[in-house]
Amino acid sequence: MTIKTDALPITVSHVTKTYGSVYALNDVSIDVRQGEFLTLLGPSGSGKTTLLMVLAGFTRPNQGSLLFGDEEVIRKPPHLRNLGMVFQNYALFPHMTVSGNVGYPLRLKKTPKNEIEDRVAKALQLVQLDGLGDRQIDQLSGGQKQRVALARSIVFEPRILLMDEPLSALDKKLRDQMQIELRRLHERLGMTTVYVTHDQREALTMSDRIAVLNNGKIMQLATPQNLYDFPQNKFVADFIGESTFLKVEKSGRSLIAGGVKLKTTQPVCNADKLALLIRPERIRILETKADNNMNVFDAVVSNLVYQGDSFLLYAVLSEGMEIAIRGTIQNDNFARLPKPGENVRLGLEASDTLVIPDE
Amino acid sequence: MSNIISNLDKNSTADGLNGKGLRQDEWLERLKLFGLCSPALILILVILVIPVGWLFFVSFIGADGSFSLENYERMIASKSYARIFKTTFQVSILTTILCILIGYPLAYFISQLPSKIANLCLITVLLPFWTSLLVRTYAWLVLLQKKGLVNDWGISLGLWEDPIKFVHNLNGTLIGMVHIMLPFLILPTYGAMKAIDKDYLKAAANLGASPVRSFWTVFFPLTTPGLFAGSLMVFVLCLGFFVTPAVLGGGKVIMVSMKIVSNIELFVNWGAASALGVVLLLITIATLWIASRFLNLNNIAGGGH
Fold it and tell me: What is the DSSP string of A134-192?
């Protein structure tokens, strides 16, 4: 990735924001690297939007520090922070044309007229809207509005770009396409980007790193792959991807879950209560004898669901816990899958056996 | 096989499957809906269309009872009529401007308040609506007269020495009319202001606009439809206003509506009064028509874009 030298790193330290007795942000600290695409991911009410609003200057925190590069900006009003922002509902000015909207920040800065025209045209080209400059905002489709909002937020070349669930109003197909496009645009422009979403797939697709928030706290900050493969706590494991948890009993030095003494190659943390995390696509149905590096669970099939490209099989362990198993459908394997009521043996590789704190 | 096809063809070329019946149903439904509207239509016919038609008719009846244009001719020929129309427009335009200057900042102020307090403020704006127009006008007379409360206080506080003539002139008329018209301006303007998405102002700030810039480049333009709608309503209502100028103008501010009254009460000339009524109606319609070329009149009901 090309990092533009004028992209600014962001340092958030000890930011707290309360509404009455509720903590919207609880002593949050986070470093966004220069030119990084960082996503704030969390359920609604987790504080991700509040944090973005603190960055933009629209929400005044109770305490904390915010550095853009080396400059403290926590008390700077929003119109002096010089960062681009894409709003959830785009917030395009309805009384201006597309060009009027995109040129607005340049007009505020008293840019010469012909330069404004040049840069607006370039920005519109960048988001593939060339020639639509004279359109009224209400003549645009949702996807086009999204692009105009994006063009407006980058036309004045801010060194930081904030995006507040910018794709949530688009239909799925367009959203998938825009994810890739936004990512490409980021690689091309290289500005430090903070992106808010509640959609984990979107976060995994686009981000360099993801910060998962819950109840105003950062639960984990990691690359998408680390977040998915090595969640540090039950909230992250539950929020990212599909998961089943089995309670883990400690017996001396060994760990027992679902009646099986667990083999794992992954480090086990020191917490009092532990849980085994099972991802539906990491556990599989054993047709032959298991190898030694596998944990094997005996179960009874309770349900089998056809989903086109894949199947989802639910099986109940002897202790009553239900696990989901996902597999791809190819050739005629769906017909050969065990039916509800049949016994099945499930295998989990030692390297996929993740024991996490159960809290 | 060919039989079936030809049957289908016949159906589709003539009426389609059940086409005739469905069309009949639609007609019946329309007829029924029209029937439901008819009481209202008859009411409008009786209380609006017929009287206005009668007004037009009477305006063409001369003093001797025959058909003539003399009522209109007099209006063009007589200077006093020109003065009356000039006064009417002057008072209406001044009232509208004053209402904008007072009402817009007030509406803006209320729109920025927390909703509970804002509702309270709106009630106080609306409160005068629930008091009789006549009572309010006479109340102003009591307050503003030569030895009224305002002059007493002004003099005893040393703000001015001799009593100021607030009533029985243009001042009094304007004070009274602005007071009565203000809610008509505030309500649609307030509606337009409340309809503005707060994110627009955030976006403006984010893009580098200071609060003052964002007000003039984003907030104000978005409220102009509501402001225009309110101003138009005030202006049109002013054109036909009677009570307030009659009481507070003290005979010095003569508007069209007052001339209509004097035509009937003093001169018992229904033709002349009707002709004035017709002209006033046409001016009002023309004003609304011109305004409708520039803005969407739906905005009168409140709401911005």
Answer: T-BGGGS-HHHHHHHHHHHHHTT--SEEEEESTTTTS-HHHHHHHHHHHHHHHHHH--E
Inside any domain, residue A288: yes
- Shared domain for A196 and A246, answered yes or no, is no
A with B: how many residue pairs have Cβ under 8 Å apart? Answer: 65
A211 inside domain: yes
Q: Do residues A351 and A265 both lie within one domain?
A: yes
Q: Are strands A37-41 and A192-197 parallel, antiparallel or unpaired?
A: parallel
Residue A351 sits in a domain whose CATH number is 2.40.50.140
Contacts of A135 (CB under 8 A, 6+ apart): A97, A98
ipTM (interface pTM): 0.82
**Cross-chain Cβ contact B197/A91 below 8 Å:** yes
CA distance B177 to A219: 64
CATH architecture of the domain with residue range B75-301: Orthogonal Bundle (1.10)
Mutate to test the interface with B, among A85, A102, A138, A162 (most CBs of B within 10 A): A85
* Residue B210 with chain A: CB contacts under 8 Å: 79
Identify residue B59 by its one-letter amino acid code: S
Residue after which a domain boundary falls, among A205, A233, A261? A233
Task: Answer yes or no: do A84 and B206 touch at CB < 8 A.
Answer: yes
Q: By the CB < 8 Å criterion, does A148 face chain B?
A: no
Q: What is the mean pLDDT of residues B249-268?
A: 86
Query: How many domains is chain A partitioned into structurally?
Result: 2
Whether A169 is covered by a domain: the verdict is yes
Q: pLDDT for B209-230, tens place per residue?
A: 999 999 999 999 999 989 998 9
User: Which run of H or E residues covers position A219?
Assistant: strand A217-222
Do residues A58 and A180 share a domain? yes
Q: How many helices (H) and strands (E) does chain B have?
A: 15, 0
Q: What is the pLDDT of residues A237-272, one digit of tens each?
A: 999 988 889 888 888 778 888 888 888 888 887 778
Residue of B207, B211, B218 lying closest to A105 (CB–CB): B207
**Whether residue A252 sits in one domain with residue A299:** yes
pLDDT at B89 over 90: yes
**Nearest-CA distance B209 → chain A (Å):** 6
- Among A233, A266, A290, give the residue marking a domain's end: A233
Residue B130: band (very low, low, confident or very high) from pLDDT cuts 50, 70, 90: confident
Rounded to whole angstroms, how far apart are CA atoms B173 and A26? 61
Choose the weakest-confidence range: A40-44, B70-74, B117-121. Answer: B70-74
Write down the pTM of the prediction: 0.80
**Model confidence band, residue B78 (pLDDT cutoffs 50, 70, 90):** confident
The encoded tokens of residue A48 equal: 């991700």
CB contact under 8 A, A94 and B305: yes
**Are the Cβ atoms of B211 and A87 closer than 8 angstroms?**
no
Amino acid letter for position A160: I
For residues A180 and A322, membership in a common domain is answered with no
A contact test, residue of B207, B216, B227, B305 with most A CBs within 10 A: B207
Confidence grade of residue B302 (pLDDT, cut at 50, 70, 90)? very low
Residue A26: pLDDT over 90: yes
List the single residue in A with minimal CA-CA distance to B201: A91
Cβ within 8 Å, pair A78-B213: no
Assess whether pLDDT exceeds 60 at residue A184: yes
Q: Domain range holding A40?
A: 10-233
- Statement to judge: residues A222 and A345 lie in one domain: no
In terms of domains, do A204 and A258 share one? no
Answer whether residue A17 is part of any domain. yes
Task: Tell me the domain boundaries of chain B.
Answer: 2-59, 75-301
Which pLDDT score, from 0 to 100, does residue A203 have? Answer: 94
Q: What is the rounded average pLDDT of the residues A327-356? A: 87
- Angle subtended at Cα B108 by Cα B224 and Cα B244, rounded to the nearest 5 degrees: 80
Whether A90 and A127 map to the same domain: the answer is: yes
